[in-house]
Amino acid sequence: MSVRSLLLRLYGVFTTLAQPLVRRKLRRRAVAEPGYAHAVEERFGRYDEAAAGTGWCWVHAVSLGEARAAGILIAELRRQYPGIPILLTHGTATGREEGAKLLEDGDLQVWQPWDAPAAVASFLDRFQPRIGVLMETEVWPELTAACAERGIPLVLANARLNENSLASAERLAWLARPAYSSLAAVWAQTEADSHRLVSLGAKVEGVYGNLKFDATPDPRQLATAARLRGQLPRPVVMLASSRDGEEAQLLEVLKRFGALAPVPPEQDAVQSIARRVHEVQWMIVPRHPQRFDEVAALIESHGFAVARRSTAGAPAESEIWLGDSLGEMALYYGLADVALLGGSFEALGGQNLIEAAACGCPVIMGPSTYNFAEAAELSLAAGASLRVSDMEHAVTAALKLVEHQDRRDAMSEAAQAFANANRGAAQRTAAALLAIAEKAPMPASLEERAEPSLD
How far does the signal peptide extend, from start to end residue (predicted)? Predict the structure, then answer.
């Protein structure tokens, strides 16, 4: 037995022994997100009798962002190859909920198998995919090894790898390098991602850009936003896809600027920061739905009145609006005159700014944008966004933009041009994926399927 095989076997022993801890974690997560209690046994290789088949184009989208990117790729796959049978897997409840919207007749959706030998083997035996597509970052040692052993091409699409993730992978190089080198192909978002992936042994076959540039904002949501904006007495500044700690930062800045204090009418509006803050409608849209109630309580604990999208429907008169709904980011960006980019004001690497650009919403980002480093820099260069050092400077920059409509309009136009100029990743990725799938060996039982195959 080689050293590599021995280390992988030891890893498999560890992941097998860890399964009770995984079950306990799922039970705890299910308290806040009931979706984690659904079909738990699928994660360990036990499936409903109806869940079977062979020859699937298997797409793994671990969470919400990856599921949205997968939706763009799957739509293009169906355009290039109508009737392609899709098997979707996920790791989070929000990913599975979003993925369910992508299913058509003949498709199937199950949980990602836990990366233990028995669970992975059961998954591959049950579904016998023709090709596997991992979205963005999800590379698991047992899964990649098992696919390579069975001759199932496993690819990494829309691939990204930041410096922090590279450092973590290098610390576990005995696991990471064999996993990345086992992939049949990798299509990176940026040249920087490509270099980092290659350093781990990945076979990068193209730098195709980010699939999310090919997303089209929901026109119905944008139309609703335009209608609502006509009814609003104040411009809207949104903290978009906020992460833990960032909401408190914003609320504390607003309090410090006097948002809760009465403003003497004789004060000059240009000189009074408090008056300027009062003349804006502030909105917070948390990134994770399990934090909606927590953020609502946080807003109230800081002394602000809060109106929630889930209960008020249309925007209500309140000091802070809370966007506590899923799948409505186009509506929120359409409502906002300016967006503060969540995840960039804590050391979290920033959230995706591409959807904001596609909606024509100017973005102000904090210092931490390593998750989308190239997109952030391109956006800055295009004049679609601004970068500031902290939340206080973000608030003051937003207030300046609100006061200068000509500059805001110019940034909005630049944002849409930036988004349009970077399209095309979906077409390139789908074509490359189908080319690999067509060359892959056919599972022995494919002829038993009634659904369309890849041949």
Answer: none
